[in-house]
């Protein structure tokens, strides 16, 4: 399975900040926003990742992330000339996807939960169909909404309905089999002129091949698209990290614990950030693993 991070768009809800820099490069507490969706794909076992950016910001993403080799991954980049909807990412990434399955994640979504890696692994292991992730929200009118039967099977999906049939929002994380490329190419622009990901998911629902993973109590899903939401996300990450002494969405540590890089490679990465608290944390992880010989956890 391959992965796509959609980090294009104009980020107009965050103006004037995003008039000069991509939203996905803004900090969420102590690290760039894109680290969070990147970590989700890593936890799903995905190592080949396409990053879709605006033409203006692509060089900044390349400067930050490089080709991924330092953390045992392979990054590719492609430009999205203008926002055309989430489904457009699947069309732009068709050559990258090739004959493989693919996971698509929005560059401004943050997920957190103890058993999240297991849920991601289950979704990634499905050989066919689509998997979406549902999350209970107080204002479902603002999201794509999925209606479920008592067995947890999807009955309907609607995009920002005035009268939602449930309070289960569809989050910005999607797993698809290879049919998604041909499906995306048949989607017609909506009334707002975009290729809606809801229409792609509807196609899987209609053929009876849409799976829904519910992220219930104990999980957090944050969309950092507004100033208030960005601050809320930063405060949440700050509280977690300072309380536990552990970093959330640290790609270098994830790569080490998954066995993508050696301890020596990890120590070399830690030296890059030695004067920051982020670098200090990486050094502590290296020292702990060197002392115990354990990379799990």
Structure description:
The chain has 297 residues and is α/β, with parallel strands linked by helices. Helices cover 35% and strands 23% of the residues. The strands form 4 sheets. The chain has a 7-stranded mixed sheet with strand order 5-4-1-6-11-8-12. A two-stranded antiparallel ribbon has the order 2-3. Strands 7-13 form a two-stranded antiparallel ribbon. The protein is globular. The protein starts with a strand and ends in a 5-residue tail after the last helix.
Short description:
The chain has helices at 35-43, 58-65, 88-92, 94-97, 116-125, 179-186, 197-206, 227-244, 251-257, 263-272, 277-292, and strands at residues 2-7, 27-28, 31-32, 48-53, 74-79, 102-106, 109-112, 130-136, 144-148, 154-159, 168-176, 210-215, 220-223. The chain is α/β, with parallel strands linked by helices.
What percentage of residues falls in helices of 4 or more residues?
25-40%
Strand order of the largest sheet: 5-4-1-6-11-8-12
Largest sheet: 7 strands, mixed
SS elements, strand count? 13
Assembly type: single chain
Structural class: alpha/beta
| Shape by Cα distribution | globular
Number of helices: 11
Average the pLDDT over all residues and give the rounded result.
94
Order of helices and strands: EEEHEHEHHEEHEEEEHHEEHHHH
What gyration radius follows from the Cα positions, in whole Å?
Answer: 19 Å
Strand coverage percent: 15-25%
Q: Cα distance, first to last residue? A: 24 Å
Q: Which stretches are poorly predicted, pLDDT < 50 over at least 5 residues?
A: none
């Amino acid at each position: 399975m391959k992965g796509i991070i959609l980090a294009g768009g104009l980020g107009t809800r965050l103006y004037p900040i995003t008039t000069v820099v991509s939203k996905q490069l803004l900090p969420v507490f102590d690290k760039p926003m894109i680290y969070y969706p990147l970590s989700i794909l890593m936890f799903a076992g995905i190592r080949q990742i396409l990053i879709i950016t605006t033409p203006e910001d692509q060089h900044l993403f390349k400067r930050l992330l490089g080709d991924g080799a330092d953390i045992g991954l392979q990054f590719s980049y492609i430009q999205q000339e203008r926002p055309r909807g989430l489904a457009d990412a699947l069309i732009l990434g068709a050559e990258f996807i090739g004959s493989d399955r693919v996971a698509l994640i929005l560059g401004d979504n943050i997920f957190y939960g103890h058993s999240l890696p297991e849920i991601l692994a289950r979704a990634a292991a499905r050989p066919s169909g689509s998997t979406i992730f549902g999350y209970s929200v107080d204002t479902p009118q603002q999201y794509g909404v999925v209606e479920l039967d008592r067995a947890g099977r999807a009955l309907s999906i609607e995009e920002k309905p005035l009268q939602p049939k449930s309070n289960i929002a569809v989050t910005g994380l999607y797993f698809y089999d290879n049919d998604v490329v041909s499906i995306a190419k048949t989607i017609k622009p909506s009334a707002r002129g975009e290729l809606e990901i809801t229409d792609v998911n509807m196609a899987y629902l209609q053929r009876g091949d849409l799976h829904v993973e519910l992220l219930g109590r104990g999980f957090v899903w944050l969309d950092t698209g507004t100033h208030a939401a960005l601050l809320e996300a930063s405060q949440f990450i700050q509280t977690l990290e300072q309380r536990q002494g552990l970093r959330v969405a640290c790609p270098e540590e994830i790569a080490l614990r998954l066995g993508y890089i050696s301890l020596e490679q990890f120590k070399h990465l830690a030296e890059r950030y030695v004067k920051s608290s982020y670098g200090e944390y990486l050094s502590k992880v290296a020292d702990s693993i060197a002392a115990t010989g354990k990379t799990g956890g």
